[in-house]
Write a structure and sequence with these properties.
single chain, alpha+beta, Fructose-1,6-Bisphosphatase, Chain A, domain 1, D-Maltodextrin-Binding Protein, domain 2, 2 domains, 5-stranded mixed sheet, 8 helices, Inositol_monoP_metal-BS, metal-binding
Length: 259
């Protein structure tokens, strides 16, 4: 099956999952659990959406491997073959506390290269997606390539942990940019870079399910997506990431390269 046909099928799943999530916000007795700390939450909907995607993948692509945040793992020792990477709710704390500012993400990689990706901004009903070699879209609108520009010409997005544990390097970046914006969802932060609302997104360590979808879309759109020191992303481990237009990326890497 060609990637365009797989993307059409995946879009149906993404739309259905988005409707499930919007409907779930009416539930006043949502089951919520802590994972590693009080701000790291998982809900019954995280698990339900992941199970929904897994059921669809296993039905249509039984030979593909799956890597999901909420525990759906095939034995993955390397990135060979087809691997689906799922984050059912990115920004679960926002989903619980704000009922907004969260997204649902799924991507397909082949031999370590992203071939299609979807990030669903659920509340705004904006689905960002890309297919290898075909561009990146928001719903039916094709996104334009972000022109290179300096750090001091735009805003930046930074993870909360980087702000609360401000290093001298982080301060330098913040002071050079026009300002900082935080959302609390890696998927939505990456969309901000894709759409040129911020010039860069910088984080501490994130797992594959947090970044794979944005990694594919940013690469397809011609943005630069690396570890914070400019070295390549490795989806087999956690990565402190930097996604930005090419000029801002160079300027930010120059500050973090010696950390």
């Amino acid at each position: 099956m060609e990637y365009e046909l797989i993307a059409e099928l995946t879009r149906e799943w993404v739309d259905e999952a988005g409707e499930m999530l919007r409907e779930s916000l009416k539930n006043t007795s949502l089951k919520i659990e802590e994972k590693t700390n009080p701000s790291d939450l998982v809900t019954e909907m995280d698990r339900a959406i992941e199970a929904f995607f897994v059921e669809k993948i296993q039905k249509h692509f039984p030979d593909h491997k799956i890597f999901g945040e909420e525990g759906t793992y095939d034995e993955i020792n390397d990135l060979s073959g087809f691997i689906w990477i799922i984050d059912p709710i990115d920004g679960t704390l926002n989903y619980v506390k704000q009922k907004s500012n969260f997204c649902s993400m799924i991507a397909l990689f082949k031999d370590g290269e992203g071939v299609l990706s979807f990030i669903n901004d659920v509340i705004h009903e904006d689905v960002y997606f890309g297919i290898k070699g075909k561009g990146v879209f928001c719903n039916d609108r094709r996104l334009e390539t972000v022109p290179p520009h300096s750090l001091n010409e735009g805003l930046i997005a930074i993870s909360t942990k980087m702000v609360t544990n401000e290093s001298e390097k982080t301060k330098e970046v913040v002071q050079e940019a026009l300002g900082v914006r935080l959302i609390g969802s890696a998927g939505l932060e990456m969309i901000q870079v894709l759409t040129n609302r911020v010039s860069a997104y910088i984080t501490n360590d994130l797992s594959a399910w947090d970044i794979a979808q944005g990694y594919m879309l940013a690469t397809e759109l011609g943005l630069t997506f690396t570890r914070r020191d400019g070295t390549p992303i490795n989806l087999m481990e956690k990565n402190p990431i930097l996604v930005a237009n090419s000029q801002a990326h160079k300027e930010i890497v120059s500050k973090f390269v010696k950390e």
